[in-house]
Amino acid sequence: MFGSSQSFILRPPSRTPSLLSLHRKNELEPQASSSQLSSPDPLDSRLAGMGLYSPQLSQSTRSGSFSSISTATSSAGERPNGLIRHRHRQHIYARVHQARVKQDRQKLAAEFRLRAYETQRRYGYQSSFADFESYLTYYDQVKSAVLDDSNKALEDGPLKRALSIARASMQEYGILPHHPPTQLTFCLEPFLARRRPLNFDTFALDDLQKKWKQIDVGLEEDRKPKIPPLPKVLPPEDEAAVKKILEKRGQIAKYARESVDDKDIIRLRPAQWLNDEIINFYGAMILGRSEASKENVPKTNGKTAGGPMKGRGAPLNAHYFSSFFWPKLTGDGYDKGRLAKWTKKIDVFSKDVILIAVNHSNAHWTAAAINFRRKRLESYDSMGMAKDTVFTQLRKYLDAEHRNKKKAPFDFTGWEDYAPDEITPQQENGYDCGVFTCQFLEALSRGEEMFRFTQKDMPYLRRRMIWEIGNTTLRDD
Predict the structure, then answer these.
(1) Maximum distance among all Cα pairs of the chain, rounded to whole angstroms
(2) Which member of 187, 364, 432, 457 is catalytic?
(3) CA distance 386 to 365
(4) Which residue ranges does the record assign to the Ubiquitin-like protease family profile domain (predicted)?
(5) Which residue(s) pair with 369 in the sheet?
(6) Catalytic: 364?
(7) How far apart are CA 451 and CA 439, in angstroms?
């Protein structure tokens, strides 16, 4: 056998049944009815698609000969084109690798946050690292609530370009997603951006002019009378009164139409957001002080017509709109929101200033003002973002109110948008925006151009506001 010249070819076993075996099985089975043979079988269609043609099979042949194939195809699932769906399994170490990558990214992001915190500390940041992390998270929430376009937070110039460089660098190393926290990338810009020589272009010149302007403003403010600084703590008897107020249950105080109970007053404890009740109660006291004041005379060289003051301005002829005014204006509009009824008994155009507490999408508090004395639309934001939207809405309201009450369009000649970021105190955490807003409104009601509080005064101001609400009196110290 081995000596013969005949060659043998080994063929792999066929995976499809032979046509001869199908024909023999068909002869042994009884003939099917014409109705059974009229409908084509899916298996015949698949064989025809492979170039194989077989005679029609009986029902018993279909159910018996290829039962294993039918079971396999039905359990595995078939696609519309008749092919069997294949499962794509992950690598056995895929989950371990994904967990390790996630852990490494979290560790690297934590290191970057720590480095950013140390960088901000060198530039004057005074709060804790926990407050800094809460601020980063809160910044993104406020940006999404206040701004539709992420680039509106920064004006065109070197700062915006630095932010784009930092964002691209962090995406390159896979530390942050496609839309990373803006404030974090801005904080990391000093050690993420590539060092390049300063080009003498319009951006650099604008930056220098802005710095010179800030220096001029600082020199001008140094010549003005100084506002007395805030005390560090309350007097012992007032501190004891604050503790008693916090121990009360039920209604704490009532002023005009506003009231505050125990569930509201506890929001003035540390690290708590303020609600509408606290904001509006404080605004009502500002309005009441303005109405009770006999002399609404602006401050002149630290004195008023009634005599010397304690370095602070006399209350202006002000009006306060509650926090529910802004959602009506931005959501419903002047006519649908029936805002004309809000000023049915007053003439806003005879006031010195209109004060508004602005709640941006239930995420952030800011203060806005219509300053008739200085012809300015003003916005004061402790996060330095809410400007354009505020100015647009205030202009719409002024024009609609003037058309309704004076039957003529409002004349905006000489009016300007005013948002002094360089003198507006900024918060360093994610929960003090309400306290900043109340203090903005209180200072604006006196006509003060400078603010005497910063982030470090927030613990004292929270205790002070508890005393003021409990006694329904604004302090002058």
Answers:
(1) 134
(2) 364
(3) 10
(4) 258-444
(5) 355, 378
(6) yes
(7) 9
Rounded Cα distance between 48 and 44, Å, is 6
Has 457 been annotated as catalytic? no
Residue labelled with tokens 């006031």: 351
How high is the pLDDT of residue 184?
53
Report the pLDDT averaged over residues 84-103: 85
Q: Which of 131, 264, 352, 381 is catalytic?
A: 381
In residues, how long is the chain?
477
- DSSP-derived secondary structure for 195-251: P-PPP-SHHHHHHHHHHHHHHHHHHHHHTSPPPPPPPSS--HHHHHHHHHHHH--SE
What distance lies between CA 165 and its chain's CA centroid?
22
| Residue 189 pLDDT greater than 60, yes or no | no
**3-state class of 35 per DSSP?**
helix
Quickly tell me which residue has 């720590």 as its tokens: 114
How far is Cα 360 from Cα 327, in angstroms, rounded to an integer?
9
Residue 387 has pLDDT above 80, yes or no: yes
On average, the pLDDT of the chain sits at: 77
Residue 62 tokens, joined: 């279909």
Q: What is the DSSP string of 99-156?
A: HHHHHHHHHHHHHHHHHHHHHHHHTT--S-HHHHHHHHHHHHHHHHHH-SSGGGGS-T
- Contact at 8 Å (CB) between 431 and 273? yes
Catalytic residue among 131, 264, 433, 438: 433
* Residue with tokens 């839309």, as numbered in its chain: 179
| Spatial separation of the C-alpha atoms in residues 273 and 446, rounded to whole Å | 25
Report yes or no on whether pTM surpasses 0.85: no
Q: Would you call 433 a catalytic residue per the annotation?
A: yes
